[in-house]
Write a structure and sequence with these properties.
- This protein is 41% helix and 15% strand.
- By secondary structure, the protein is an alpha/beta fold.
- The strands form 2 sheets. It has an 8-stranded parallel β-sheet with strand order 1-9-8-6-5-4-3-2. A 3-stranded antiparallel β-sheet has the order 7-11-10.
- Strand 3, helix 4 and strand 4 form a beta-alpha-beta unit.
- Helix 2 packs parallel to helix 3.
Length: 314
């Protein structure tokens, strides 16, 4: 399956693995890349030393392209960008901040730059600033989300041709969704939640089991009214957070309640007080498989869906 994204990154399939904090490590990234996609190491919440070690570990596990995600609001973001340049990583995805100042140094080091953008205005700005591709991410995804749905973003951003590949993310958990994005004009997709349910993913088994048991109405969004929305599974933590949010609690109180909950969910498997970050497309997440099998299934489903689209009488 060839698109502008596969040509840009030198990968077999137009699939990028989403960057999930405490989950997207070298083992997962390498497994996705070895399976034909593009794996990503998530630097969010990690030390610079950890990021360098994971990059080198991934290089030992795969000879295929992989990337690093940098949260630009992190205090060590600039240091991580420097490490990415020094280690000559194939590409970087950038979010939670302004990527433009980092584009020249990354491109000078031969690193392809793929920022995550939430709207048309920023997509146009990033394209003009020299990015190699962009990711548009809808609010159906897990973790930090924007305000537009994936369908609305595709309708708005893909309404005009772009000189660089456009990658769609947010609630894409099966091959039908991949086909939909490609038919709308995307060059590829970014998938997170489906890769949590893989044998190579280090997410705690209890959190994986909670995702397997979840249905379409089992996710909640905290912080939406404060402009810092995060999607995760409903539990005692989200109930308390949302009650305080609706009651107008000070932001400092909400921040204190939420601090550390991502690690508690993904690493410790605390299903009551931790945050299990996952997207809305829950009912198609039914099994745990090796990354290679997940990717092969996704592509098979996408091809079947695309073939059916050709059969529609016009």
């Amino acid at each position: 399956m060839r698109t502008r994204l596969t040509a840009l990154l030198g990968i077999k399939y137009p699939i990028i693995q989403g960057a999930m904090a405490w989950t997207s490590d070298a083992n997962l990234a390498a497994a996705v890349s070895n399976g034909g996609g593009a794996g990503i190491i998530a630097a969010g919440g990690r030390t610079s030393e950890w990021v360098r070690d994971e990059i080198r570990k991934a290089k030992a596990l795969t000879d295929k392209p992989f990337g690093v995600n940098v949260m630009l609001m992190a205090p060590n973001a600039s240091e991580i960008v420097d490490i990415v340049c020094e280690e000559k990583v194939a590409f970087v995805t950038l979010g939670a901040g302004n990527p433009v100042p980092h584009i020249p140094s990354l491109k000078a080091a031969g690193v392809k730059v793929i920022p995550v953008v939430p709207n048309v205005k920023l997509a146009d700005r990033i394209e003009k600033a020299g990015a190699d591709a962009i990711i548009i991410e809808g609010m159906e995804g897990g973790g930090h989300i924007g305000t537009q749905t994936t369908m609305a973003l595709m309708s708005n951003v893909l309404a005009v041709p772009h000189s660089i590949p456009v990658i769609v993310a947010g609630g894409i958990s099966d091959g039908r969704a991949i086909a939909a994005a490609l038919l709308m004009g995307a060059d590829g997709v970014q998938i997170g939640s489906r890769f949590i349910l893989t044998t190579e993913c280090p997410t705690h088994p209890a959190a994986k089991e909670a995702i397997l048991k979840a249905t379409d109405t089992d996710s909640a969004v905290t912080g939406f009214s404060r402009g810092s929305a995060v999607r995760c599974l409903k539990n005692d933590f989200t109930d308390e957070f949302l009650a305080l949010e609706r009651a107008g609690a000070p932001q400092a109180e909400l921040d204190k309640l939420a601090t550390g909950t991502n690690r508690m969910g993904a690493v410790d498997g605390d299903l009551k007080r931790g945050a299990v970050l996952v997207g809305q497309s829950l009912n198609v997440l039914k099994d745990i498989l090796p990354c290679k099998e997940v990717i092969e299934r996704l592509i098979s489903e996408a091809k079947v869906t695309l073939a059916k689209a050709k059969d529609i009488e016009l």
